[in-house]
């Protein structure tokens, strides 16, 4: 089994790292963090893809078992998850693959390009994000494909982990920095130092 946590990582924060650690333990496998260079479903990230990649590499370098993956960065164009999973399937052959996702993002899955194809290519490991209960079509999709043992097949199952996640978001962190607050406790140390050194997310006026 190998697992991937995709994100805009604008910036990567302790909530992401905690989620990756919990997933690695639940699945007993390494986790790779995939930078969504050009996220198609949201406003353009504040930091450039190069800056976000530098932050992600710093965060992963300090964590045993986590690695940054540039599969979407190298591809160019919009970062659709289904295209990424196709590339990962080619790279990893018949190995079991899991795409890690918070409940907030999973609730939007029906807006994803070719969303039903995702489960042909990998599993979904859904993490319960504070304030985002599963609902609507995402909840039905989960019930239809629920599996508590993803390792048995290369793809096709959805597992929901009920472990607590940290109430941290990149948007809240960007807002705090713009208002001049110290956010060191919400970020890996190398990430915090890099952000300060390069003046990222600071208000420009
Ligand atoms: P933003 O606030 O800008 O939307 P974010 O903090 O949600 O950013 P993303 O890079 O968009 O971060 O998230 C990437 C993935 O990580 C998504 O699947 C998201 O649900 C998940 N995630 C983000 N923060 C957490 C957290 N604190 N706990 C668990 N999962 C998280």
CATH topology, which one?
Rossmann fold
The helix-strand sequence is EHEHEHHEHHEHEHH
Q: Any idea what the CATH superfamily is called?
A: HUPs
- Oligomeric form: single chain
Which percent range describes the beta-strand content?
Answer: 5-15%
Q: Report the bound ligands by name, code or SMILES.
A: adenosine-5'-triphosphate
Our count of domains comes out at 1
Coarse morphology: globular
Fraction of residues in helix: 25-40%
Number of strands: 6
**Any low-confidence stretches, pLDDT <50, length ≥5?**
none
Determine and state the CATH class: Alpha Beta
Helical element count?
Answer: 9
CATH architectural group: 3-Layer(aba) Sandwich
Rg on CA atoms, Å: 16 Å
Q: Within the largest sheet, what's the order of strands?
A: 3-2-1-4-5-6
Based on helices, strands and strand pairing, what is the structural class? Answer: alpha/beta
**How much is the average pLDDT?**
95
């Amino acid at each position: 089994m190998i697992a991937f946590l995709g994100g805009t990582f604008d910036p990567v924060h302790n909530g992401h790292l905690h989620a990756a650690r919990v997933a690695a333990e639940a699945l007993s496998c390494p986790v790779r963090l995939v930078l969504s260079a050009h996220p198609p479903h949201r406003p353009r990230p504040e930091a450039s893809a190069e800056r976000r990649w530098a932050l992600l590499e710093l965060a992963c370098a300090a964590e045993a078992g986590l690695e940054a993956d540039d599969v979407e960065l190298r591809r160019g164009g919009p970062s659709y998850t289904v295209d990424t999973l196709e590339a990962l399937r080619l790279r990893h052959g018949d190995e079991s693959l899991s795409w890690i996702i918070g409940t907030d993002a999973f609730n939007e899955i029906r807006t994803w390009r070719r969303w039903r194809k995702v489960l042909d290519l990998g599993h979904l490991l859904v993490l319960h994000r504070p304030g985002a209960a599963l609902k609507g079509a995402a909840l039905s999709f989960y019930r239809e494909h629920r599996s508590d043992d993803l390792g048995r097949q290369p793809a096709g199952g959805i597992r929901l982990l009920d472990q607590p996640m940290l109430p941290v978001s990149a948007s809240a962190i960007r807002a705090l920095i713009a208002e001049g607050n110290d956010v060191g406790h919400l970020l890996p140390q190398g990430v915090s130092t890099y952000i300060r050194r390069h003046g990222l997310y600071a208000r420009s006026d």
